[in-house]
């Protein structure tokens, strides 16, 4: 069941979000704290394909004291049912037993299913799964639950999507007025100028369901895309990895056990054993938008290119002309306060240094 109000979620008290995003919520006096005292952010509804970096995003939210209305699963890093059960396992590791997890779309809208066990392991969590989660998934389809949550808490939460956007697209088709009910959408997806990570030009979340991404971009809500241009700059140092590995915090211990596979997978791309923080960065910016500066560009997704399908195409030209038909305005992360982000991420897993 859904909570009757954001105050019924049962996690630590939250403060209204500050935002440097164009059109974002008004600034508030709350801020980050390297001592872990002051917690920013609105409640979050999370749509994810829980593999390893999704798990890190959930643990980061919990470690920051954020509030979670629910989790909806989608295909991507793992099949959607496995992703949902993995979300339950991560919540168990974080000591959170009352957040509902709903199963979502099990395939893209217009192409075959593709998953990423070579990056996230055979179970989506680096091969650490030894049994079923402690509780079952909640009843109801993810897209329906997104719509219901939006009607129950209109413009009171941030929708964070860190997997393929199939559930969001289906929710938009179910409820065309959804953009009037959700005023903040943060997506981990796409690449502006950076190379893709699944094709030379396409990022995996967008490429895994280009039609869904196009529907999300066309919708008249405020959407922020956290692209590979910034997430690939968040690679952890050896010292930062050692801090996670050496922590006795249960969140860090769970994270490190799953990360071992991920670090090995990323060695082939990075040339060393480490990883970027794709999904945790999207979550961090949802909780604390002023970690970054932003720019807005009219954007669309390439749907037909033989070699470019699934590529995010922002119009970065310096022009005052009317944008071409199709697509929509997207807010992109421009510059990131990397030191502050890393400090907050590490503290959320391990506690104060």
Characterization of the model:
It contains twelve helices and nine strands. With 353 residues, it is of the alpha/beta class. Strands 3-2-1-4-5-6-9-7-8 form a nine-stranded mixed β-sheet, with helices on both faces. The chain starts with 43 loop residues before the first strand and ends with a helix.
Secondary structure blueprint with pairings:
Blueprint: E1 44-48, H1 52-63, E2 68-73, H2 80-93, E3 101-102, H3 117-120, H4 142-152, E4 158-161, H5 166-174, E5 185-188, H6 204-207, H7 210-218, E6 223-226, H8 228-231, H9 238-245, H10 250-270, H11 278-287, E7 292-301, E8 312-314, E9 328-336, H12 338-350
Parallel strand pairs: 1-2, 1-4, 2-3, 4-5, 5-6, 6-9
Antiparallel strand pairs: 7-8, 7-9
